[in-house]
Each structure stands twice: as C-alpha cells, then as structure tokens.
Known about the structure:
By secondary structure, this protein is α+β, with helices and mostly antiparallel strands. The protein has one helix spanning 56-73; strands at 7-9, 24-25, 32-33, 37-39, 88-93, 99-104.
Amino acid sequence: MVRMSEHYWCHGPSCHTYATQDRVRGTKGSKVLRTRKIKINDNGWPSGFYKYFCSNGCYNNFADKHAEQIIKIEPRHEPLETRIEDPKREKHETHYGHTYYDTTIKKIDNAEQ
C-alpha cells in the first residue's frame, strides 16, 4: 500500500490544547502544544478510527462536535432488527441459596429465511 506519509495527525478538535509533555514542541522561548502524530506501520495498523485519533477522548470530542454532520452521511429513519429464536431463561441456584437466571438469546441466520 502506498501512502503519502507514514503518519496521520490526530483529528481531535482539542488535541493541541492538552498540556502533556509529548505535545510540547519548539525552541526555548517559543514553545507550543502540538496535535499528536499517529504512526501507521506497514501492516496498516492502527486501522479504523484509531488511525485518526490519538485517544478515545479525542475521538469522542470529534464525534460530539460533528455528530449532526456524521449522522447526515447515513441517516436512520427506521430501526434495524435481527431475527432471534424465543429467548430461553434458565434458573440457577447456588449452594448458599442464591437464585439467579441466565437468558440465552440465539440469532437466526439470515440464510435460513
């Protein structure tokens, strides 16, 4: 895979404002906090959104800021559904008298429909 660079810059809108030592750049007297760089290795890792954000916090800030625009990409006007068998509820009792229940939910393979 050919890439323009071996890294991406974090897309978190506030990444450059967090006061951590790894973000400090510049020479004495003209220091700045810089957005983090995300290195991409030859196997394409990290992948998905992890190659665009240095942390879950930066990802969440981006998603919060741009939620309306993101949803416009693929709006949902009806719920999605997955067919399942009737759930099976199983009762368990411990040796010290506690009772709890497990519910098993099994999906129905769409190929069987």
